[in-house]
Amino acid sequence: MKPYRGRIAPSPTGYLHLGHAQTFWSATQRARRAEGTLIYRTEDLDPQRCRAEYSQAAMEDLRWIGIDWDEGPEKGGDYGPYVQSLRTDRYREVLELLKMQRLAYPCRCSRKDVMESAIAPHETGDEPIYGGTCRPPLGQARRFDPSSEERVNWRFRLPEIENIEFHDGGFGSQSFRTNSDFGDFVLWRHDDIPSYQLAVVVDDHDMKITEVVRGADLLKCTARQILLYHALGWDTPDFFHCPLVTDETGERLAKRTDALSLRSMRESGQTPEAVLRQFQH
Ligand code: GLU
Fold first, then answer.
1. Among 11, 84, 204, 219, residue to substitute to test ligand 1 (most atoms within 8 Å of Cβ)
2. Buried b (16+ CB within 10 A) or exposed e, 234-266
3. pLDDT tens, 36-94?
4. Which of 99, 128, 131, 233 is the S-S candidate for 122 at Cβ 3.0 to 4.6 Å?
5. Is 3.40.50.620 the CATH classification of the domain at 1-85+246-281?
């Protein structure tokens, strides 16, 4: 068996809340129990939403509740850099591989076009299912050649298979359907930013992650990512999704203000032990 390598991968778009803490705590516990290695990766691809101060705060807040890691941005390690914005060349290389295999195609559709031609109305919090306006016919690479100045999205061409099934360590067997749960998804954005789906697969592969522990809100993303692993001929890691933390009204914490951020708990005098006691099981 390969030695266990897990990761925690916060996006520095705000202060971490109890929900993040619980997921990252599970990831840490699983790595420690397996006597494995834990990696910290900063997922800061979107310059509009990410801020350096939040990266710093995330590390401080996680250390405050007792989470520490073996490889990461300031610690180094054999698979660095551990900051996504410093890894763009590698993501571009993999995008090129997918283009060569005719699995990535340029798409000119605006957000509005995508909404209007979507196959299914989109559920809250998820992207609409792409109607395929720019999808090339089978066997062709693309419908048009974008000029060097043209800003297009590059989309992943979903395979013809319809079911994606996988075993999840937390939630058991999972099954998703292409073009019903999700459509051709973006690999590279028109503003020249790699998508989360592409970057996370490349990183988890390159950093030799053996188990991905993440929140249950990402189950459908896991299904998309499995298709990318297959397309690239890479082994998939194991997956373990964690239940999402909700507040007293049942609302997901992510949608709330920073009332339950680790930072505000700390500032209001709570101890790390008191925070850990609030984890829901
Ligand atoms: N960066 C994501 C987050 O902060 C986690 C992504 C993942 O675990 O794949 O929610």
1. 11
2. eebbbbbbbebbeeeeeebbeeeeeebbbbebb
3. 999 999 999 999 999 999 999 999 999 999 999 999 999 999 999 999 999 999 999 99
4. 128
5. yes
